[in-house]
Specification:
9 helices; about 280 residues; about 20% strand; about 40% helix; 6-stranded parallel β-sheet; alpha/beta; binds adenosine monophosphate
Length: about 280
């Protein structure tokens, strides 16, 4: 497994693979890897000749009061996990390599980013889109893998790939959870035991929302209230949003139809956690 800190090293290697006619799967991450990331890498491993993983805590996607400094990092553990999955190359740049002096170009979107996480994190998706497009240009993958855990991000990247004719297949992968239901996240490490127990309200409330829909409820307002009422019972929890949107366009819906994303963001103490489920009408 190669570990590259420079774009030029990555380019040289992927060009050599391309010349040999090999396909490339790419998994962008911020590191502190867990089973969720691993499932993306395993999918990439199954479906491509070569697998590239990026590990980069992208300063551009953090707001000024967010956790950029404290975001957990452990490169040695991450690279061992990648090696175990059979990753071929890790791209691990320093911020100066990605954003050299004078950097001033961005990718933005007029739609999809105004709701959910885009509301409470107004510059977040601009940072995500910009870094992902840069990675795509460096790695030039055939397929790129994203988790449904960040469902809005998945829709945003799919839209960007379509709008900008990237010719890269964007593959969405299911949410991986702890045994107790908590969606795996690098940020779970911020939670103490009491907060971890409190955080179980996220998946429990969503399970209730899912049951309501499966039992025939079609009023998005009622589903949102039912979810919010369950979370409100947990004293350590503070709701950022509970919403039901059309999955493709990330626009709020009043009635459940087509493919909807039921998404929540909740503060447990100082830690902001997200979770969701997708309902497809058949
Ligand atoms: P991050 O390192 O948090 O930026 O995440 C990198 C990629 O891993 C993103 O596409 C996430 O959606 C995905 N991911 C993170 N947690 C999970 C999870 N619990 N299940 C599935 N995918 C995940």
């Amino acid at each position: 497994m190669l570990i590259c800190e420079k774009k030029s090293e990555v380019r040289e290697q992927v060009n050599a693979w391309r010349r040999q006619g090999l396909s490339i799967g790419f998994v962008p991450t911020m590191g502190y890897l867990h089973e969720g990331h691993k499932s993306l890498m395993e999918a990439a491993r199954r479906e491509n000749d070569r697998v590239v993983v990026s590990i980069f805590v992208n300063p551009m996607q953090f707001g000024p009061t967010e956790d950029l400094e404290s975001y957990p990092r452990d490169f040695d553990r991450d690279s061992a996990l990648c090696e175990g999955v059979g990753v071929d190359l890790i791209f691990h740049p320093q911020p100066e390599e990605m954003y050299p002096e004078g950097f001033c170009s961005y990718v933005d979107m007029n739609g999809l980013t105004g709701e959910l996480c885009g509301k409470s994190r107004p510059t977040h998706f601009r940072g995500v889109q910009t870094v992902v497009l840069k990675f795509f240009n460096i790695v030039r993958p055939d397929r790129a893998y994203f988790g449904q855990k960040d469902a809005q991000q998945l829709s945003v990247i799919r839209r960007m790939a379509l709008d900008l004719d990237l010719g890269i297949e964007i593959v969405g992968c299911p949410i991986v959870r702890e045994e107790d239901g908590l969606a795996k996240s690098s940020r779970n490490t911020y939670l103490n035991e009491e907060e971890h127990q409190a955080a179980l309200m996220l998946s429990r409330s969503l399970a209730e929302g899912k049951t309501l829909i499966e039992d025939g409820e079609r009023d998005a307002g009622k589903i949102k209230s039912a979810i919010a009422d369950i979370i409100a019972k947990e004293p350590l929890a503070k709701i950022d949003y509970v919403d039901v949107v059309d999955f493709e366009n990330i626009v709020p819906v009043e009635k459940i139809s087509g493919t909807v994303l039921v998404a929540i963001a909740v503060y447990i103490g100082k830690t902001r956690l997200i979770d969701n489920f997708i309902h497809k009408e058949i």
